[in-house]
Structure formats: C-alpha cells, structure tokens
Amino acid sequence: xxxxxxxxxxxxxxxxxxxxxxxxxxxxxxxxxxxxxxxxxxxxxxxxxxxxxxxxxxxxxxxxxxxxxxxxxxxxxxxxxxxxxxxxxxxxxxxxxxxxxxxxxxxxxxxxxxxxxxxxxxxxxxxxxxxxxxxxxxxxxxxxxxxxxxxxxxxxxxxxxxxxxxxxxxxxxxxxxxxxxxxxxxxxxxxxxxxxxxxxxxxxxxxxxxxxxxxxxxxxxxxxxxxxxxxxxxxxxxxxxxxxxxxxxxxxxxxxxxxxxxxxxxxxxxxxxxxxxxxxxxxxxxxxxxxxxxxxxxxxxxxxxxxxxxxxxxxxxxxxxxxxxxxxxxxxxxxxxxxxxxxxxxxxxxxxxxxxxxxxxxxxxxxxxxxxxxxxxxxxxxxxxxxxxxxxxxxxxxxxxxxxxxxxxxxxxxxxxxxxxxx
Length: 423
Hints:
The protein has helices at residues 10-18, 51-66, 69-73, 85-90, 92-96, 113-122, 145-150, 163-175, 188-194, 220-233, 239-247, 250-260, 274-281, 283-296, 303-319, 325-337, 340-344, 348-352, 359-367, 373-384, 394-418; strands at 25-31, 37-44, 79-81, 101-105, 126-129, 153-157, 179-183, 201-202. It is of the alpha/beta class. A hairpin with a 5-residue loop joins β1 and β2 (37-44).
C-alpha cells in the first residue's frame, strides 16, 4: 500500500496542524431512506496528536463555528461532532446557540453529573452513540435512562447486531420518540437489512460501494451519458468541437455556463459559450468539468454519492501536482470515475468498456496499479478516517486537510449548478 509518507517530531506536529486555518476534518453523511441528506458527522483526523494539541485543534474547530466556516462546510445542514469532555463543558454556550449543531455523547457520560447538568440546562441537541454496547446484552440500556431522556437521537452499530436484534432495538428506541441512526452500514447487505426499519438515517461505507447485481443493465439514460463521455474522449476535440458536442444538450450548456460564470471563479468577463469557456480555461479542464457536470446531473443517485465523486476528482488533481499537466488532468478523471461503477450500478469493467480511456486511468480503476493508484489510496484512507493506523505524518495530514476542504467547496459549487433546472 502506497500511502502518504514523511517524518516530523511531535512538537512539529502541533505547529503544523495548528498553524493553518484548515482543519483535518471529514464530513460523513447520514442519509434518510430516500437517499437525501439528514445530517453530517464531522470526524477529525487527530490520532497523531498529543492531548494539548488535540485540545488546541478542537478550540480552532469552535472558532470556525462562530465565524461561519463550519456552516459553509456542511452547507447549513444539521451536523454532529464529538468534543473532549472539558472543552464541551467550557464551550457549551457556544454550541447551544447553534441549533443545527448536535453533540455526540457516549454511554459513559452517565457517570458525569456535571456534564449531564450542563447539557440539560442548555437543551443541546444530543446524539447518544450506543454503538459500543455489547451486541449480546438482553437489556442493553441498563442505567442509561437519564441519557435516553435527554437525547434526541441515538446511533446503533448495525454491523455488529444481527437482523432481529437490530429490528427490535430500533423499534424500541423509535417508540420512545428518538430518532434512530444505523451506523457502520458498511455493505449493501446491512443496508437492505436497515431499509424496512424505523430509522431516521443510515451511515456507513455502503454509499461508496457498488452493489452486486446479478445481471447489470445500463439504462438508456446511462448509455447516453457514456456516449457523451466517449465523444469527449475521441479525436481530441478542440474548443469548437467541445461546443458542438455539448450544443445539443441545452440544459447541460446552461448549467455549465452558469457554473463557470459564477462568483466562485470571479472571471473578469462573462463567458457566453462553451467554446469561449474552453479557450479561457483550456480544453482539457473544460472537458473534465463537462464530465463532472454531466455525472452530477444523474438525478436517480444519492446527491452525496455524486458529491463524493466530485470531491475525489478535485483531490486527485491536487494530489497530482508535481506530475505533468497531462497527468494532472488524467488524475482528475481517475478520481471522478473511481465511483463510476457505484453511480452506474454496474461492474467497473463493463462501464469502462464503453470509454476510450488512457491506460493509466484504467489500470488505477480496475487493477489498483499505475501512477494514480497511490493517489486514490490516499483518498480512500482519508475518507475512512483511518490515518491513525497508517503512520501518516502530521504535515501530510495538513496537506490532505487543505486539499479536502478545497475539494468540498468546489464539489458543492459544481453540484449546486448541476442540480438546477433550466427555465
């Protein structure tokens, strides 16, 4: 496994991680049964930090709440986070003034009288994480009644509970008026087990994994999308050809021009055609954005899955800095297409057979080989919050944090325009 590597000391780690405005955070979506976003959990890569550095990191997090940065990261949606106990008590008033920001607490909090009193006084939105409870316990809640009475939401470990126990516990908690979240839904078998239950949301890696289908079929809409992508690859189209390829899709053209002319890019003048945009930004970059916008317009897939593909594309491109310009453009494609099997509900080999991609891209997506495979591996580790198990050094955590936060802003911008309707 080729992961991020470098060396530094613990004191250097504190300086590096705390001297920059970007936080090592990943937003993990919780989706309702229709695939729409219910909330984000904000997860922090802090395994490499000493206690003092962790406290300083979390204080910086709180400052992003007060200045609105955190709201932009989660786009104003509901979000949950976990804070160190002392910092939670110290800053509880700040948190109480943000009703869409919830606090994750553990069953061990039942023994902390001071914390419970403070939480009760502020009426904070609490998510009680029950995932650490013994799956084999007949009466799992024991003396947790005070916490259950205070909480608005609870989270169960859907991966650790058998189907009958998960159904029973979710029904019991739902009957108490609690919003039940199934966590650790890390494959589609567990997801389908959760679907009929009384759940507020599900959370886990299933979202990014292709579902195994016995006889996958590419629908007409998906075939049309692959034809568009094929046309963008064939014969090395220039600005005029790009304009002609997109010309017949009025909605796509409208969304693309709206996106490139938005305040996000702060252009000196308005671009009035795809040809002008291709000349201004460059053909390769514009072609990649057409791919991104077209994929993001798939309205039968969960929006957070589409955003994840966009985030991967931008991250791959940024992590490829230092490679040739051509490889950076190919890295963007590699990241964007890394979820193509999940988006298309078909095996990667089948989908890629319709696209004349560079061998380096295909090798990374199918075989995990070539120059772009290490970039994807870094992104997978970041998404999963597994840096602590890989000896990744703090300065590279900072780099990944910067790249990730830039990618989320860009992905949200592109998706917002892709999700529009032309009138």
